[in-house]
């Protein structure tokens, strides 16, 4: 990778061991020639990967003996102009400890300068306009370096050698605090901003990959004001906390959580909330969890220290729009929300959202892989013989470009349902093609004909590709892509028993799948088992209104003889008959085998939620309610035949019986989770008997549910299975593009793309 201080590191190491030679970048990576005594050479090779700078990725070291040339000095050879276009770019990285020292040292020339950075930290992807990655190709192009910065930049022994965004108060960007009309507010911008936050105002704060909206998280009026101005109903706000100690006062922070919070990537970490944590109710209404993050830019560090209390830091947008990152656009779109703007004149080239991590089973699981992770390449144990573009799914979209042994999964694009998001999707693809020098020959896409990502692929396949004489389209079934994503995540080719549980994905039979057991490898799959399909009354309406799924499942379980006194029926009486009649007549009613929708049905039946305001809300609340000590489970019958069909309606019937017997929601919820985990083990047993396979891959958004995930993994391991889960990409649809790319590559290698 460039700009991560690798060559200066090699230079220093060689000098320290008194070795002669040279280091330079080439098309394959870094080439080093060293000459000296055998013991020193050995020490050099040992230290090389072990002590590499934090942002460098040493994938492999190959050595070869050469004739000595009598070289006594060690030099850094400049990259040739027009040299390798294939350079690996590092992600935007949290301010390093050395830069923090500069930031808070009154004697340093960068004291309290909010743009301090070096080769070990600072902005990268968000400021890169093109290649080669050099200052003129970044949004720092308009800030010529002063003589002192220039000296550091050109000194191989300096921490800022070739750090493209290097700058100081004399030559770099400036912070400003303004009104929504753009009028400058006097005084020190950081101190003034902190005062305004403490006084309850809403601030727009320009971050690394976009604008955030900030309020004092201990002030309920402020948080409620932000919620209503943003039109955000229930979805929790993320918080910026100054340090781990503050995080630990609000939430239970275990060792894995602490590692995730303090890692270089600085994601938002979802943490179980402490009952006595001082956070205003409107921050995360009814939530047992809070999303916390530590400061990751000098600006955030200065602000966090100054305000000295938790502060909401949520995306700068109205409801579901993409976050604002362009200054003019931000002042237009956020004018009705923010009372003041804390902004600066270093442009953001690429919108990159905060990443989100949750610790599941003691390991960090990515809920959203974006800032801090992207565009770090995922290396795979097999090679793409032709360059691939995978277009991803519709919700939580990411795309992926792949070539050689690397897959580059994009930042979080969002839900492809408005013009703005679609534009970041198409712009993002262009940017990645340019940055990684990929001319896709294979274009992988979902089978859903209405996904905008599918349509984009189809367009490439028809005009551009046909004209260029050779783009091949590769359609990949949604749940096969989930399982392939899990395989690629683990560097495994299969075959495996794949368990894909999610919301909705287009099946090969034209129905909506989502509770699937597949026998799959990277090339292909066979459907081995699934939930017995039920109607999805009203299509998309059934996703927003879980009570409709309750109606579908209760009808399947009881026909017309619904048990009396069911609250979910009473609450929705006015629409119940009408919706079921429409479903019965097949009006706007696809059928689905979705596991996510079964969670919705159960959440509605037990009275947790009839409607949702964001995806997965009902299942999240069901998980939070579950009593973790409860071990009981419900029976569910499986119809004979192949693929096996699991009667989800049996489970709903058992839930109703428990309700009528007076069992509390916490117990029912736990029993339901145990039932689903138990079903996975039962069905995998049947598939193992038939196929001899004993590796199980778990994927799909439903496995974001930590309780279900942990119970399922434990139960499978107990039965002797090898269990594969996600770690490098999310288990939700954010990981789909990697799976699609892996399938396209594998089919291409086997000659049947
Ligand atoms: Zn630094
Ligand atoms: Zn300077
Ligand atoms: Fe999915």
How would you explain this protein's 3D organization?
- Helix content is 35%, strand content 19%.
- By secondary structure, it is α/β, with parallel strands linked by helices.
- The chain has a domain at 175-344: DHBP synthase (Alpha-Beta Complex).
- The two termini are 31 Å apart.
- Bound molecules: zinc ion (2 copies) and fe (iii) ion.
- One zinc ion is lined by residues 96, 98-99, 117-118, 120-121.
- One zinc ion binds next to helix 3.
Uncertain ranges: none
CATH arch. level architecture of the domain at 175-344? Alpha-Beta Complex
CATH domain class of the domain at 175-344: Alpha Beta
Q: Please report the distance between the alpha carbons of the first and last residues.
A: 31 Å
Give the number of helices.
23
Strands, total number: 26
Question: What general outline do the C-alpha atoms trace?
Answer: globular
The hetero molecules present are: zinc ion, fe (iii) ion
Q: At the third CATH level, what is the topology name of the domain at 175-344?
A: DHBP synthase
What structural category do the secondary elements indicate?
alpha/beta
The average pLDDT is: 93
Features:
DHBP synthase; single chain; binds zinc ion; 26 strands; binds fe (iii) ion; 7-stranded mixed sheet; 753 residues; alpha/beta; 10-stranded mixed sheet; 19% strand
In short:
This protein is of the alpha/beta class. 35% of the residues lie in helices and 19% in strands. It has a domain of 170 residues: DHBP synthase (Alpha-Beta Complex), CATH 3.90.870.
